[in-house]
Design a protein that fits this description.
The chain is built from 6 helices and 14 strands. By secondary structure, it is an alpha/beta fold. The two termini are about 20 Å apart.
Length: about 250
């Protein structure tokens, strides 16, 4: 990647392309150094002044040389992904050991995943953005009308055995869905500390009837009191969002 032009776009994120880049108090080599940025650091350009870019640095205004900035990578640029938060409205899905509704954690996880995928450059659509009921056929129709390149249905599991735990991914068509499902499961298993239950073939309608590569992921057991507590945390759902995003990058890179 080459350095950005002097007229870097204000409000755009860039990455530092230097071993160490000095942050100065004014746009001049003669001004005091107030800090430094490591190679690969991401900054948002707030203003341009000649070959200098103004950034926010630890709550203060700082200036760095635009010659050592590169455009931030957006590895999923142009990829259209539909996220499906399972259940909703009158359909609560699984109900956890402590009364957690699956529909709620599905939605909060989907919202975090939406943000992560969008930050990576993907154009993301959601089958539901609130607590509303959407039937299975409509979820598929939404994916088709969006001309999706890939589809992910997010769920949490339940079992009559309170000790059941872990993450699994489900596909329908080996030629269309399997690699997509494996990409998701590999990253989910790698980035979370949940048991890797593997990838399975099932005829779930939102996957089977989807024209795009599609996967249904089960992200933990709400019927397991320990797992129910973990999966509701922001930290866990952020790990899931990061894993799904990296899985999408792996898939589309190949």
């Amino acid at each position: 990647m080459g350095a950005v032009p002097v007229s870097a776009e204000e409000g755009t994120d860039y990455q530092v392309d230097a071993t160490s880049l000095n942050v100065r108090s004014t746009p001049s080599l003669d001004s005091p150094i107030i800090g430094s940025l490591e190679d690969g650091s991401t900054v948002t350009v707030l203003e341009e002044d000649g070959s200098w870019s103004r950034i926010d640095y630890n709550g203060y205004t700082g200036w760095i040389s635009s010659d050592f900035l590169t455009a931030s990578e957006t590895p999923l640029e142009g990829v259209r992904i539909t996220l499906d938060a399972g259940h909703g409205g009158t359909d609560p899905g699984a109900i956890g050991a402590a009364g957690t509704y699956e529909k709620d954690v599905n939605l909060s996880t989907a919202q975090r995943t939406y943000d992560e995928l969008s930050d990576a450059g993907a154009t993301v659509n959601m089958t539901r953005s609130g607590d509303q009921y959407v039937d299975l056929d409509e979820r598929v129709n939404i994916s088709h009308s969006y001309d999706s390149d890939a589809f992910i249905s997010l769920h949490y599991n339940a079992s009559t055995y309170s000790s059941a735990e872990g993450i699994s991914s489900y596909y329908s068509d080996s030629s269309k869905d399997l690699l997509w499902a494996r990409s998701m499961q590999d990253q989910l298993a790698s980035k979370t500390d949940r048991l890797n239950n593997g990838v399975f073939q099932e005829e779930y309608r939102v996957v089977k009837d989807n024209q795009a590569p599609a996967v249904l992921v089960e992200l933990g057991f709400l019927s397991n009191p320990e797992e129910e507590e973990v999966v509701q945390t922001e930290s866990y759902q952020s790990l899931v969002a990061d894993a799904i995003t990296q899985g999408a990058i792996d898939y589309f890179d190949n």
